[in-house]
Amino acid sequence: MGTQEQKEGSGRDEPASITDQAPRRNSRRTVFGRPVRWVASLLVAAVATVIIGVLTGIPAQLFDVSAAKDKLRSGPPLSVSADIIFLDDEGRSMAMPGDYRPNGRVEQMMAKPKAGVSSEFLGAIRDAGGVQVTTLTIRAILEDRRNQEIRILDIRPVISERAEPFGGTLFFIPPQEGAATMRMMIDLDRPDPIVSEAAKNPTTGKIESGKPFFADTTISLHDREQEVLIIRATAVLHYVAFKLQIHYRLGDKDMTTLISDHGQPFRITGFHFGPQHSVLAYEGAYELQGDYSLRQTTDPSRMDCLGLPGCSP
User: Fold this and answer.
1) Distance between CA atoms of residues 58 and 167, nearest Å
2) Inter-CA distances, 302 with 96, 160, 278, Å
3) Gap between the Cα atoms of 84 and 261, Å rounded
4) In this predicted model, what pLDDT tens digit does every residue of 177-219 receive, in sequence order?
5) Enclosing H/E stretch for 242
6) Angle between the N-to-C axes of helices 119-127 and 104-111, in degrees from 0 to 180, rounded to the nearest 10
């Protein structure tokens, strides 16, 4: 009997093996997984379509592509470089605050013909502390470094020092005949100097300050576009150290930057006169000779100041 029970037991269905069960579980995943993935794909596509539609539908004034690109660009928005130049109508006179004695190298330069117009000589005097007298012409190169337009709204001097004109040593190199073309002038003797239009005086023929330059004018720059400005500063009554501050607009932001003499202030001085402003008054002076060399004068007060700015004959 026990034998028959064993036979009957051997005839029962055996539990399914792991291998046999796997297809059933996979079939469930196939049935339910495909619709889920299909629905998820539809949702992602729908969301992407909505986002793209929204972004492309935003008006330009609300989504500024140029402004967005500018966030990736480094450095200042407005690049500025400047140097000092001489135009045909201005002299090369320079003055120092003390009794300057040229060294051998500078003496050799001064003894050569055309020393008075030599950039090497003038550079050596400037390096020794010399300052241009009555006129200073600055060439500034501005460049837009952004995708957005830059608009120059104003330029104003920032004065760091104002004092009596230098009365130490004068290198007297008066202007020769010539004309100059420029758009901007700054009268640094004014209490609150501004950039003015350069205008020719019909009576004297000289270029003088006219109406405020930026009263009805702006300068616009686009990406990598440059603008060259020729700005003449004048000072008759004072010694002045200054930089130029540019006010400009980038997009909807107002910004400023400075024009300087390689990081230092520009400097200019008027002639130094005696009490009656009828003679020049310096501790020492060097005059221009016929061959444009320079020679020391024994009595600076005998130098003719007729026609010089500030001279009262």
Assistant:
1) 66
2) 19, 34, 10
3) 8
4) 777 788 999 999 999 999 999 988 888 777 888 899 999 899 9
5) strand 239-250
6) 150
